[in-house]
């Protein structure tokens, strides 16, 4: 089998991609047929989702949603406290804001408008209909599979030529499996949409940064695309604004290693390409925030109408981190005598939580997906790499690790301990795990004990991905393998 992979590498990679995408498409269509839904588009409905509502608002030239809140809100001094809303009807989890001098106020979507601008409105202009959330999520997941496949192929071709094609196929299928089993196909919502949008363009940002490292002739183009993708990721999740730190690190590397601290016109143009698109996206987001809430730094979380009452607590605190690490990464699941033998719905240790913090009783990433522990091993194998390429390998690994540290810290500092948010740290850990396996295999063939460990880890991951993905289990939504992309 290995010899066949080596004789026909391109056919194997293309075949794997087509197979994964075909399985994903088949499962997607089966779910929609079972739910009696249209596969591709649907005509606008009042309950079509807040991104559909936001699309309709944009088409009417406004940033607030169409329609007005209940008039009783005008007499409510603090509608953000659930007990003080009484029986006033409201739209759950939207932002309600009254500008100074405004009596009633309007509803706003506190999510960033990236999916609307890149997917909803373009399809509306082309077809006259707005797409369903599942169709947009299918597109995002398909794009993610392609981006991951391209990044993997480029890494092997440029830095890790000793990696066998069989390992590439294994990694591609693992990443694709995460898409195929996406929980969005059972119960998609806007949280999955914004996170999937952000992670897809984060992956694209790293792909173009890698191309900028290995292709000097087209470096200006790749840097500009990386910057644009960083800005678009910010258009999905505000936390992705810190991708600009990754861009700054790239700028320092180019100045120090490639130009030897000698500034030239080419370097100036590359610097503009590296930062201008992202800064323009950030400026557009600031304008969007100001038109909604009168503050360029306000994204609408403080004005949410739900049971969280976020205004009573600090949104970000370092003291939240230990509690979040336990919840997101270390909380074990439960073993049982019946299929599927492991239940990731576990006891919620409320005594370990800060007062007022909320989370679902889900197991952490490492107990449920122990293969991600390999993410931290890549630096140990860098000495065995090709000397001429070692600096680039170390630098790209550093970029991935830096982003993992940033997004994990931000996630753990946030007040709400919610299963959606752990997807971004999980995504970064999967990229680092991929990098670790490539670096290790380039250093030499796997030992027998390593093959046994990898077999068990991959089998464990596939088992959970298939069981909890295809059965649509609603408990393990924090860390199951299909969370990887989309991801709920």
Largest sheet: 2 strands, antiparallel
| Percent helix | 55-70%
Count every beta strand, where a strand is a DSSP E run of 2 or more residues.
Answer: 6
Write the element-wise H/E pattern from the N-terminal end onward: HHEHEEHEHHHHHHHHEEHHHH
**Integer-rounded radius of gyration:** 23 Å
Q: What's the overall geometry?
A: globular
Strand order of the largest sheet: 1-4
Poorly predicted sequence stretches spanning 5 or more consecutive residues? 35-47, 180-187, 469-488
What is the domain total for the residues? 1
Overall residue-averaged pLDDT value:
77
Which structural class do the helices and strands define?
A: mainly alpha
Q: What is the number of helices?
A: 16
Strand content: under 5%
Give the N-terminus to C-terminus distance in angstroms.
Answer: 35 Å
Main traits of this protein?
16 helices; mainly alpha; disordered C terminus; 6 strands; globular; 488 residues
Report on this structure:
The chain has a two-stranded antiparallel sheet with strand order 1-4. A two-stranded antiparallel sheet has the order 2-3. The chain has a two-stranded antiparallel sheet with strand order 5-6. It contains 16 helices and 6 strands. It has 488 residues and is mainly α. The longest helix has 29 residues, at 265-293. Strand 5 (334-335) and strand 6 form a beta hairpin. 56% of the residues lie in helices and 3% in strands. The protein is globular. It has one domain (2-40, 132-485). Helix 3 (50-59) crosses helix 4 and helix 5 (133-158) packs antiparallel against helix 6 (165-180). The relative contact order is 0.12.
